[in-house]
Input
Amino acid sequence: MDEALSPPDEAVHRLKSHLGEPLRARLLSDRRGSRAWKVQGPRGAVALKANDPYGGGARDKAAELAQEDVHLARLVEAGAVRPGYRVGAGAWQGGRWLAVRWADGKPVWEAFAPVRAGDRPGARPWLLDAARTWAGCLDRMHAVGWAHADVQPTNALVAADGRAALIDYALACGPDDRPRLPYRGALTHTTAPEIAAAVLATPGDAHVRATPEADVWGLGASLYWCWTGRRPVAYEDADDRGVKLEAIARGVCVPLPKVRPWTFPEFEAAITACLAPVPADRPTAAAVVASLAR
Output
């Protein structure tokens, strides 16, 4: 691996006591000012994230990692995240790093590729399990007053058995207004209509608090997108973010029957319910779990 793309020495030194030696690191991603590796040793593996000190928004990414570390400590204390998920964190000469327990699985978009291609044996129960367990992860956060605030296809990993694991808690919104980075929405395509409207109506440095209801809309949008291959709200790829947010804020989605790859009434009903334009009309994450239980 290019030495410039290797994990921070400070992190590797700390992880040796947890994983044993020798350690092997594989770069997973390098984009938008942050990098991620799978670091593996004789006693297990972790996902290691660090800011790119020379990338765009390097200072913001370092601050996000510090914020995620605080969030994980609070979520573990509240019982929403299992103890042991956070492995370690700290400063390095280029900023901040954070290591969490490795979760096997593929990002939802990749995991759903076979079911986008057609209804095949086992596809229906597998889809229900993936959606149900993803909603269950959100329910554990919502039950203690937190919202994940970045529900999107890359922030859940689906294992071969259909069980989903939630990752990336950097933007999460807790039940109080402790000092934090202002939340201005996350991935545009899975931003709930009320969050889109609030972002458009407030200054760029204002904090917009995400809610469990917004997470549920993001869940529905992600399932819609990854199953159909189409985003739920119609706009052009070339449109700027403001135009896209205006379209989302109107709360009108392309009807699933127009874009679904095959008919699956139970799954479609859950997605459609999550995408209700009025937050109070959406099911809770716990209700989604119950509706998809087999």
Summary: The mean pLDDT is 95. Residues 58-78 form the longest helix (21 residues). The chain has eleven helices and eight strands. Strands lie at 24-31, 34-41, 44-51, 86-92, 95-101, 106-107, 156-158, 164-166.
